[in-house]
Specification:
The protein is α/β, with parallel strands linked by helices and 264 residues long. The chain has one domain: Rossmann fold (3-Layer(aba) Sandwich). It is built from seven helices and eleven strands. The strands form two sheets. An eight-stranded mixed β-sheet has the order 1-2-11-10-7-3-4-6, sandwiched between helices. A three-stranded antiparallel β-sheet has the order 5-9-8. Strand 10, helix 7 and strand 11 form a beta-alpha-beta unit. Helix 2 packs parallel to helix 3. InterPro entries: Glc/Gal-6P_isomerase (IPR006148), Glucosamine6P_isomerase (IPR004547), NagB/RpiA_transferase-like (IPR037171). This is Glucosamine-6-phosphate deaminase.
Length: 264
């Protein structure tokens, strides 16, 4: 039996984007998990698989915990993708996004390796070939659902403002991480020193993320409030890549009171 759906504080739309504000992180995570679980179940009602792209960050903790507990999902038919990975980090590195998703989701629900489509961040000798191979995979196995977050600088995945392109012609690329992004990784507790934070990463591009018919975004905490304000009230453009969500009719932005404080 699934938990009851949380009652939102408020909800509204900005352009095409549905925005739902929740009382706290726990309710935000549960509501987002219910949406994703229902979407997966609907997809599997008339297809033999669901391709889901996941974000890896502490902001996803409550959402992923609720998703793991969801009884509606037939995980045997879910194929797991992820949206970014540090260049040069192997899958067992404590800060690897693959390791995070294994520990918070994939191992817990029993998705085996042959149903995981993960970016090999340790591939540093020929990153272009790695990008081309993963792009071929994305085109042959189109994404059904994207589960994302927003960075403190307004990034989607690792599309930081200096490198984001809302009309990017490719689906995945290697980017240099900006200072605000690297500082966020440090503040999130992923690294001990700023010098340890990688300077480059693989990332799905904005068009790749928004190609999915359903995009669910969870953004908790006071440190994200300014990014939420820019996303919802600023111009749509590369200065705040997450603003592109406002053009997506299947996108839902889940906030808590802290992250929504400037838009309530």
């Amino acid at each position: 039996m699934s938990l009851p759906e949380p009652t939102p504080v408020t909800q509204f739309t900005v352009d095409s984007l549905r925005v739902v504000v929740h009382e706290d992180r726990a309710q935000m995570g549960r509501a987002a998990a219910l949406l994703v679980a229902r979407t997966i179940a609907e997809r599997l009602s008339n297809h033999d698989r669901a391709n889901v792209v996941f974000a890896a960050a502490p902001s996803q903790n409550e959402f992923l915990a609720s998703l793991v507990a969801s009884p509606e999902i037939d995980w045997s038919k879910v194929f797991g993708f992820h949206m970014d990975e540090y260049l040069g980090l192997g899958p067992d590195h404590p800060a690897s996004f693959r390791r995070y998703l294994q520990e918070h989701l994939f191992r817990l629900v029993g998705i085996p390796g042959d149903r995981l489509r993960l970016i090999p961040g340790e591939q540093t000798e020929s990153p272009l070939q790695t990008c081309l191979a993963y792009e071929t995979l994305l085109r042959s196995e189109p994404t059904d659902i994207v589960c994302a977050g927003i960075g403190e600088n307004g990034h989607l995945a690792f599309n930081d403002p200096p490198v984001a392109d809302l009309l990017d012609p490719v689906l995945i690329k290697v980017v240099r991480l900006d200072a605000a992004c690297r500082t966020q990784q440090l503040n999130d507790g992923c690294f001990d020193r700023i010098e340890d934070v990688p300077t480059h990463a693989y990332t799905l591009t904005v068009p790749a993320l928004l190609a999915a018919p359903v995009v669910s975004v969870v953004v908790p905490g006071p440190r994200k409030a300014e990014a939420v304000l820019a996303t919802l009230r600023g111009p749509i453009g590369e200065a705040c890549p997450a603003s592109a969500l406002r053009r997506h009719p299947g996108a839902t932005l889940h906030l808590d009171r802290e992250s929504a404080r400037y838009v309530l």
